[in-house]
Specification:
It contains 17 helices and no strands. The longest helix is centred in the N-terminal third of the chain and has 22 residues. Helix 1 runs antiparallel to helix 2 and helix 10 runs parallel beside helix 12. The protein is an all-alpha fold and 288 residues long. It folds into 3 domains: 100 residues, Tetratricopeptide repeat domain (Serine Threonine Protein Phosphatase 5, Tetratricopeptide repeat, Alpha Horseshoe); 123 residues, Tetratricopeptide repeat domain (Serine Threonine Protein Phosphatase 5, Tetratricopeptide repeat, Alpha Horseshoe), CATH 1.25.40; 54 residues, 434 Repressor (Amino-terminal Domain).
């Protein structure tokens, strides 16, 4: 076993990786036949894994290296090899994802999703848009399209995540803002919807969906109707919570109850006025 093990080490240093792997396998075979120490057999498996990695971190070599390291763990478990396996599993996952990327097939899947969407088969649309994303995860359009399908399924949380991803990929993609605003309207997060539509209009002041959406959400905000669900969404918003915890704003809100004249003076401060408007839009502060 020592002969094959030592020659494998030399071959590894010389870059003869296939020869190294062959010698390591022979070393393991001889070692098992002679009941060698488990740690020695594990060392041969580790050297096999190292050789595969030195051949290049292709998907095939990564799989072979992981198998070799797992073989080592079966013989003699160590934390160092365990860390190597976890690291390689992450790399392997990324390698598989990269190997799967194909923009042309992504476009085909997107077009199929569009047909399912038009036909009202929204679960199938989600499935095809998901395939498009896997084939080309850098395209904001595919996330926005899947968000639209999720919205039809009332899966608003998933739809919001997709809009956020679309905006992250392309901050100037106006349709992502308009779809985000629509989702936030459905969720009665009117203060957030207004911000989404306004952001979209700063990019394209003529975007009709954003214009119509902003008009609609402003009507809902200005109607002043009480809505427990809307207020609950507002109270769950960290930004609204921060405003309500602000000692200055607490004094302002108290003045609205006890000293209207002082409250009016507060409204001359643009920063305070903006926060008041946000509380009203969130349904936390009622105007009637």
């Amino acid at each position: 076993m020592s002969f094959y093990s030592n020659r494998a080490a030399v071959r590894l240093e010389m870059g003869e990786f296939d020869g190294c792997i062959e010698d390591c396998k022979k070393s393991i075979e001889v070692g098992r036949a002679n009941r060698a120490d488990y740690a020695l057999i594990a060392k041969a498996y580790v050297r096999i894994g190292n050789a595969y990695l030195k051949k290049g971190e292709t998907e095939e070599n990564l799989v072979a290296a992981i198998d070799a390291y797992e073989g080592a763990q079966m013989e003699n478990r160590t934390k160092e090899v365990e860390r190597k396996i976890k690291s390689l599993q992450v790399k392997h996952k990324k390698a598989k994802e990269l190997a799967y990327i194909d923009p042309e097939k992504a476009l085909e899947a997107k077009n199929e999703g569009n047909e399912f969407f038009k036909g009202g088969d929204f679960p199938k649309a989600v499935e095809r848009y998901t395939e498009a994303i896997k084939r080309d995860p850098s395209c904001a359009v595919y996330y926005a399209n899947r968000a639209a399908a999720y919205t039809k399924l009332t899966s608003f949380t998933e739809a919001k995540k997709d809009c956020e991803k679309a905006i992250d990929l392309d901050p100037k993609y106006v349709k992502a803002y308009s779809r985000m605003g629509a989702i936030q309207c459905f969720m009665k997060e009117f203060h957030k919807a207004r911000e989404s539509y306004e952001k979209g209009l700063t990019i394209d002041p003529t975007h009709q969906e954003c214009i119509d959406g902003l008009r609609n959400v402003m009507y809902k905000i200005q109607s002043g109707d009480t809505d427990d669900e809307r207020a609950a969404h507002g109270m769950a918003d960290p930004e609204i919570q921060a405003i309500l915890r602000d000692p200055v704003m607490q004094n302002v809100l108290n003045d609205f109850q006890t000293d209207p004249a002082s409250a009016q003076r507060h409204l001359q401060n643009a920063g305070i006025m903006a926060k008041i408007e946000k509380l009203i839009a969130a349904g936390v502060l009622q105007t009637k």
